Amino acid sequence: MKIICVNDYDDMSKKSADIVVSQIILNPESVLGLATGSTPIGMYKQLVKAYEDGHIDFEKITTFNLDEYFNIDKTNKQSYYYYMKKNLFEKVNINMENINIPNGMADNIDEECLEYEKKIRDKGGVDIQVLGIGRNGHIGFNEPDIKFEALTHMVKLDEQTIKDNSRFFDSIDEVPTTAISMGIKTIMRAKKIVLLASGKEKAECIYEAIYGNITPNLPASVLQLHPDVIFVIDKQAGSKL
Ligand code: GLP
């Protein structure tokens, strides 16, 4: 595990974007695993800048997002599809046929999950997976007590997560209580993982993820077992290390 502790949110965004940019330069046909939430927004801005400056090209890039809320349509402004379009996809030359986000409106969720796993496998797996982290240590939407061997599946969101994510909705009652998420096993299969964290409210889970027991109670702790993982965190998120 490598830990890069930088000054602030801007530096975290630049440093993590550099890692993704170098992956794209080395392999313009890379498969990127992408995350949502407020943390990676600055990183996406940097990726857009790198594209506009002509350093990277998304034409042959494939993406797989970690998760999507259940029963929320693509056009809904709270959907992760909408988030990705707004923050990255509509700003770069990515081929929309190469982007993949779980379909929260699928009729048969089990089939959707199996199909999602198959698509990742058929593409040769994820080259670099970007992750944020929830205050309870969740990655993707893998909440505490998740089975480490889980693949893409339907998850029930924790009360803490519903509360944390309610800031993006008009009221807490509108926050979906379920979602489709890549499982821990799906995430751990990525060749490289970059986890981003910023702010003091992430200090505790970052400490536990790095130094705590490897336990499903803190899903991110499983990353201690991954052979190529980089934590890019700012001073506040790293303040308990
Ligand atoms: C959400 C997402 C995660 C994200 C996390 C942290 O619930 N499913 O992928 O990492 O919450 O979000 P934020 O970056 O806004 O703190």
TrEMBL record:
InterPro entries referenced in this protein's UniProt entry, alphabetically: Glc/Gal-6P_isomerase, Glucosamine6P_isomerase, Glucosamine6P_isomerase_CS, NagB/RpiA_transferase-like
Name of this protein: Glucosamine-6-phosphate deaminase
Top-level division of the source organism's lineage: Bacteria
Function of the molecule: Catalyzes the reversible isomerization-deamination of glucosamine 6-phosphate (GlcN6P) to form fructose 6-phosphate (Fru6P) and ammonium ion.
Gene Ontology MF terms in the entry: glucosamine-6-phosphate deaminase activity
Biological or metabolic pathway of the protein: Amino-sugar metabolism; N-acetylneuraminate degradation; D-fructose 6-phosphate from N-acetylneuraminate: step 5/5
Coiled coil: none
Species this protein is from: Tepidibacter hydrothermalis
Family matches, as Gene3D superfamilies: 3.40.50.1360
Keywords: Carbohydrate metabolism, Hydrolase
Active site: 67, 136, 138, 143
Entry similarity comment: Belongs to the glucosamine/galactosamine-6-phosphate isomerase family. NagB subfamily.
Keyword Hydrolase found: yes
Reactions catalysed according to its record: alpha-D-glucosamine 6-phosphate + H2O = beta-D-fructose 6-phosphate + NH4(+)
Domain Glucosamine/galactosamine-6-phosphate isomerase residue range list: 30-224
EC number: 3.5.99.6
